[in-house]
Amino acid sequence: MAIRQICLLGNSILRKQCKRVGRNVGADDVRTIEDLRDTLENFRAIRGFGRGIAAPQIGVAKRIIFINMNGPVDIYDDGFPLIDLEIVKRSRRTMVLWDDCFSFPELVVKVRRRMHITVKFRDIEGRTRHLLAEGDLSELLQHEIDHINGVLAIDHAIDLSHIVYRREWERQVRAQERRMVF
């Protein structure tokens, strides 16, 4: 429908607890979903990364996210929305990874996330669904759920030394990869 401007770190909407949509997904909600899809695809085309986006990142304080992993987890070829998403179960096991975000695209943050989560959400028809997410999908959904709860990845930084500029992180990763070549 439309490519929307992404709200950047410091915008107060990113710190708001978003409102539930409920069982009746209205025309405004469908437009938000379409805008999320279009904005995600545009960001990915320009920046080269991105698998999910939350409504507050485009200025809408509702519990809607849009995911496009470009893989077998997608229900639809061009991604899918999750409405009123919440975690109902978490594994004890965690993973440590570098996280990035549309709202601060020049930074990466080392965080700890759960290996597995089960989420409950509504689909676009308003039906309640459950999804067991593992690995990459688990990490992504935790990131997006944080957004609709007013929490950012930087809030989960292992410590302040693990918030770095993307350029520096890429330089270090490339240097490490060169050292690993036999």
Distance between the termini: 49 Å
Give the spatial strand order of the biggest sheet. 1-2-3-6-7
Radius of gyration: 16 Å
Overall morphology: globular
Q: Kindly state the number of beta strands.
A: 8
Secondary-structure content class: alpha+beta
Strand content: 25-35%
In helices, the fraction of residues equals: 25-40%
Could you describe the largest sheet, including whether it forms a barrel? Answer: 5 strands, antiparallel
- Average pLDDT reading: 92
H/E element order: HEEEEEEEHEH
Low-pLDDT ranges: none
Count the DSSP helices.
3
Descriptive report:
With 182 residues, this protein is of the alpha+beta class. Helix content is 27%, strand content 27%. The protein is built from 3 helices and 8 strands; from the N terminus they run H-E-E-E-E-E-E-E-H-E-H. The mean pLDDT is 92.
Write the layout of secondary structure elements.
Elements: H1 27-47, E1 52-54, E2 64-67, E3 80-90, E4 94-100, E5 107-114, E6 116-122, E7 128-134, H2 135-148, E8 163-165, H3 166-180
Antiparallel strand pairs: 1-2, 2-3, 3-6, 4-5, 5-8, 6-7
Note the main attributes of this structure.
182 residues; alpha+beta; five-stranded antiparallel β-sheet; three-stranded antiparallel β-sheet; globular
